[in-house]
TrEMBL record:
Keywords: Fatty acid biosynthesis, Fatty acid metabolism, Lipid biosynthesis, Lipid metabolism, Membrane, NAD, Oxidoreductase, Transmembrane, Transmembrane helix. It catalyses: a 2,3-saturated acyl-[ACP] + NAD(+) = a (2E)-enoyl-[ACP] + NADH + H(+). This is Enoyl-[acyl-carrier-protein] reductase [NADH]. Gene3D superfamilies: Enoyl acyl carrier protein reductase, NAD(P)-binding Rossmann-like Domain. It comes from Shouchella clausii (strain KSM-K16). The gene is fabI. Pathway: Lipid metabolism; fatty acid biosynthesis.
Length: 258
């Protein structure tokens, strides 16, 4: 194995179904021998996550964690501490915004919609980093998922772009706070991938077509490409990297419009 994560435990948050980026990350980490703890939002998803987890080798914990609820976050991480002990990393693959605010003009966003997107998609990283820190006594790697729409204006991405900008800044502040504990914090900026969350974004098919035509690699990003990049960031190969936004997007972000 090029990367060996055996005897290490990683928390993977945000598997909804087999298309989820979190699932690709879980498969990559499990492939390197890691023990996993899956967290899911809401009872509706439990069965999905359990049946996916069962397809992986080894024993993997599956626990509920609604990221909007501080008590539930505390409860989940206490449970992880009890059942898994020390953890070596965490993949935060969670975002949410109202569908009707992911099209048209950004300025129509409501206060509630704005706060909802910030709460679930940006603040939640800080909340889980705080809860995970005491369990990461051997250091480790926290990874989140971001998108180009937080750096540049991407049509229809709107309030989620503003949330990703906050998420990207959080990655840097958290990296600075947690570096002294040997904990690295990085984001992967993935090119557009057809998942449940992406379904809510207006004009998504046109975006995929544009990537195929113009991205340096002339192809859209796959979940597996993101999973492999996450495996690298989770491993000691990335021991010198923190506070970084790593683009896994066929190079699309380097282009200008012309
Ligand atoms: P997905 O729908 O499979 O995953 C989103 C997850 O967020 C779901 O599992 C959902 O249950 C979870 N979630 C929502 N509200 C929650 C809450 N209150 N508590 C806990 N979990 C909650 O879609 P995905 O595309 O795999 O998204 C994962 C991450 O990747 C998101 O941050 C997304 O913004 C990011 N991302 C996606 C793309 C893309 O094109 N798909 C591109 C770049 C970044």
């Amino acid at each position: 194995k090029a990367i060996d994560l055996s005897n290490r435990t990683y928390v993977v948050m945000g598997v909804a179904n087999k298309r989820s980026i979190a699932w690709a990350i879980a498969q990559a980490l499990a492939g390197a021998g890691a023990n996993l703890v899956f967290t899911y939002a809401g009872e509706r998803l439990e069965k999905n996550v359990r049946s996916l987890a069962e397809t992986l080798e080894g024993e993997h914990l599956v626990l509920p964690c609604d990221i909007a609820n501080d008590e539930e976050i505390d409860k989940t991480f206490n449970e992880i501490k009890k059942k898994a002990g020390v953890i070596h990393g965490l993949a935060h693959c969670i975002a949410f915004a109202n569908k009707e605010e992911l099209e048209g003009e950004y300025l129509n966003v409501t206060r509630d919609g704005y706060l909802l997107a910030q709460n679930i998609s940006a603040y939640s990283l800080t909340a889980v980093a705080k809860a995970a820190r005491p369990l990461m006594s051997e250091g480790g790697s926290i990874i989140t998922m971001t998108y180009l729409g937080g750096e540049k204006v991407v049509r229809n991405y709107n309030v989620m772009g503003v949330a990703k900008a906050a998420l990207d800044a959080s990655v840097k502040y958290l990296a600075n706070d947690l570096g002294k504990d040997g904990i690295r914090v990085n984001a992967i900026s993935a090119g557009p991938i057809r998942t449940l969350a992406a379904k809510g974004i207006g004009g998504f098919n046109n975006v995929l077509k544009e990537i195929e035509e113009r991205a340096p690699l002339r192809k859209t990003t796959t979940q597996e490409e993101v999973g492999d990049a996450a495996l690298f960031l989770a491993s000691d190969l990335a021991r010198g990297i923190t506070g970084e936004i790593l683009h896994v997007d066929s190079g699309y972000n380097i282009l200008s419009l012309a």
